[in-house]
Amino acid sequence: MKNKSQSTGSSGERAFEGLAVGAGVAIGTIYRHDSHAVVQVRERRIPATKVRSEQHRVLEAAAEAAGRMEALQRQAKRMSGAAGEELGYILDAYQQMLGGSRLVRGVQKRIAEERINAEAAVMKEIGLMAEAFAAMEDPYLAARMADIREVGRRLVESLGKAVETGFENLPLNAVIVADELSPADTALLDPKRVAGLVTMLGGVESHTAIVARSLGLPAVVAAKDVLAAAENGAVIIVDGSTGAVVIDPSAQTLAKYRRKRAGYVKSQQSLKKLKAVPAVTRDGFRIGLQANIELPGDVDLALAAGAEGVGLFRSEFMFMNRSDLPSEEEQFVELSQAVKKMGGRTVTIRTLDVGADKLGDAFGLKPGPNPALGLRAIRFSLSRRKIMLIQLSAILRASAFGPVRILLPMVCIVDEVRQVRRMLTRLIAQLKRRGVKISDPPPPLGVMIEIPGAALAADALAAESDFFAIGTNDLTQYTLAIDRTDEQVAYLYNPLHPAVLRLIQFSAEAAMAARIPVSVCGEMAGDERMTPILLGFGITELSMSANSLPRVKKRILDLNLSAISGRVRRITSESDPARVKAVVEDLDKAS
Ligand code: PEP
Ligand code: MG
């Protein structure tokens, strides 16, 4: 995969290259998004009964922000000369704005009068003050506007970052061009208005890329320099299958990509015809194809693609883009709706997978020295039992409406599974005592194999788990020490590295020896070039974004598994990634 950019063409067209993330071609107009620009927040109406608590949140946030300012003051004092002095003045002014000032009083008044959430009230008040400053004759005072905005930003941050992305009024057929998009940003996008995405940062298996794929959006990440060339409203082409991006295309280029887009749409339509066809190889092996879902609405996409179940429900997406935690009732409503809609097909709900690039801020997680290796996923849930119990309770209650499985992310040691089992046993007894309906038998408890240590200890984990789901995205990241979100090392991200393949094979064999089901639910499952290998390892269940499902099904229908099994087994004895790649390409042609 290439990662470079270039400018060409006498017509004024400019071409860039990044990493291809989502298939298909988008031709649309540029909508620039700067993730570091002025904070925008979502306005919510609040009931009268919540006014006091909302006002109290403002006081607490102001005190917290002032505290952070004080720490900065101390730092400023240690600076020498004019810089320290100037910074000291500014921070002083900020602190004054935060302490019982016109700003805080104004925000509280607004909450009571307009009955809106604290974040929106802060931004409205800041807007008003900034306007008044801007109108002043004195240029020094007029320039204070930026300071006021900064105070507003800090206050909103202290309120818990209910920050909006500014995607609410997107023009139709917009192509978002951004420095980066957080998974939360991507989750807010309306696929009816957005034609595609281009970012300067990010890797192919970043969560942002995954959401883009599941929304069916052509996307390119790591397209260097693209933002500087992007003007709002200009025409842009995004080729999600090659990583090409063209701004202001010539008539010739436009025609070429229109043809390509039409070809893609046609092939998608013919794949749709496979919806009701079972995934059986030419030599009769039946494979279960399931969908990964991020948002409850994705259930419709999963069903439309012919998914036989949900192999991975990334529940953390229910916790995004809000300043409070969802209650048990809210979670129950969302989950039970998904379970009901799946109409008797199994729904595998993964418990909260937060930390690293997912939602760290919303939970007040202090980033440790290395967030990817820190308090995240199951480790986080076990350290905040209350949050976990609420989620488990909502999942158990949803299990009354159809088959549900519970999946634990980033399991590393057997004791983590045991702890959750104990929690579940107690919780089930409590719910039964209260007469709450749950499935009988209760949902199976499975683990994700996504840490190399877990893969190597898969036999021990298999003895304690009801099923395995192999998460190849994180497994690749941790095995090769490649941050999946970092475009600088994206060229090294390779699930075909022999080390990764050996760990997958080892985990699959441990599951089969213990007679527990095993699936692959990382992005590898949705790449039809990988299908022969995974099936050759004995894996019979694959879970992927709904968009990939028809392509993978087509590959399975064309595959003669018995003819390639021997060669697949030999793959793991190869130690050179380039050689593995060649064998995989060979497999692709062979069957
Ligand atoms: C994985 O790591 O492969 C996985 C499926 O989980 P996520 O992508 O949500 O981290
Ligand atoms: Mg993972």
Structure description:
- The structure is a single chain.
- Helix content is 47%, strand content 14%.
- It is of the alpha/beta class and 591 residues long.
- It has three domains: 6-36 and 169-270, Phosphohistidine domain (Glucose Oxidase, domain 1, 3-Layer(bba) Sandwich), CATH 3.50.30.10; 48-159, Enzyme I, Chain A, domain 2; 276-590, Alpha-Beta Barrel (TIM Barrel).
- Helix 10 (298-304) links the parallel strand 11 (288-293) and strand 12.
- Helix 4 (118-134) packs antiparallel against helix 5 (139-158), helix 11 (328-341) runs parallel beside helix 13 and helix 21 (561-571) runs antiparallel to helix 22.
- The radius of gyration is 26 Å and the shape is globular.
- It starts with 13 loop residues before the first strand and ends with a helix.
- It binds phosphoenolpyruvate and magnesium ion (MG).
- Magnesium ion binds at residues 409, 450, 471, 473-474.
CATH superfamily annotation of the largest domain: Phosphoenolpyruvate-binding domains
Count up the helices. 22
Broad shape: globular
Domain module count = 3
N-to-C span: 25 Å
- The radius of gyration is 26 Å
Query: pLDDT under 50 segments (min length 5)?
Result: 1-5
Under CATH, the topology of the largest domain is which?
TIM Barrel
Structural class: alpha/beta
Arrangement of strands in the largest sheet = 1-10-9-3-6-7-8-2
Q: Give the proportion of residues in helices.
A: 40-55%
Q: Which architecture of the largest domain would the CATH scheme give at its second level?
A: Alpha-Beta Barrel
Largest sheet: 8 strands, mixed
CATH class of the largest domain: Alpha Beta
Task: Give the overall pLDDT as a whole number.
Answer: 86
How many beta-strand elements?
18
Beta content comes to 5-15%
Q: What compounds are bound to the protein?
A: phosphoenolpyruvate, magnesium ion
